[in-house]
Amino acid sequence: MQPTTLGRVEYLPTYQAMQAFTAARGEHTPDELWLCEHPPVFTQGLAGKAEHVLAPGDIPVIATNRGGQVTFHGPGQVVAYPLLDLRRRGYFVKEYVFRLEEAVLRTLASYGITGHRVSGAPGIYVRLDDPFSHQRLEPRAAGHDFDGLGKIAALGVKVSRHCTYHGVALNVAMDLEPFSRIHPCGYAGLATVDLSTIGVPTTWNDAAHRLGEQLTALLS
């Protein structure tokens, strides 16, 4: 499986293409990994609530069949869509999600950043006061204890007939303002950051290459 870089593509046709690919694939269809970025769009997962979209303004809101709640996609964000047959790969959904998060953690580590998981809140977080600190994060419960943390990567997946689509989004150098128009992933007041705001000057292409390498290695 080698990453395919799509560049900047509209969200809805890409979503529809993932659905079509997954519906048409057979037992021997090769797995794929799509890397892209989208024009500004809010997407609602199956658990999404209308009240978590505060003021979308001129940014469209698209309902999807992925897990999770509302998030924002926009230029300067690397979005990775692994299209995998999990049964052929030999692991289940929980392990798949762990590997997606691990790929983000290793990508951040390649920039000297320590990312963190929060139990019950899929995605990856960084310490706002010192994202370069290697100190372990004390266990904390999701839903009420994001003090001192910013979310740098969101995750939402769909599995149909053991095959995956949707995926993970890593914030690189974005206009972060639209995140203030929603409750990101359903959490009011959750800070959202990107590599640029925490002091890592890099390009979309470089971040996409690093994340693609880690996903390819960890999902094999």
Find the CATH superfamily. Bira Bifunctional Protein, Domain 2
Indicate the mean pLDDT. Answer: 94
The CATH architecture is 2-Layer Sandwich
- Helix content estimate: 10-25%
Largest sheet: 8 strands, mixed
Low-confidence stretches: none
Question: What does it look like?
Answer:
The protein has helices spanning 11-24, 86-89, 93-109, 204-219; strands at residues 3-8, 32-37, 41-44, 61-63, 71-73, 77-83, 116-118, 121-127, 149-160, 163-171, 191-192. The protein is of the alpha/beta class and 220 residues long. The protein has one domain: BirA Bifunctional Protein, domain 2 (2-Layer Sandwich). The model has no long low-confidence stretch (mean pLDDT 94).
Features:
globular, 11 strands, single chain, BirA Bifunctional Protein, domain 2, alpha/beta, 220 residues, 28% strand, 3-stranded mixed sheet, 23% helix, 4 helices, 8-stranded mixed sheet
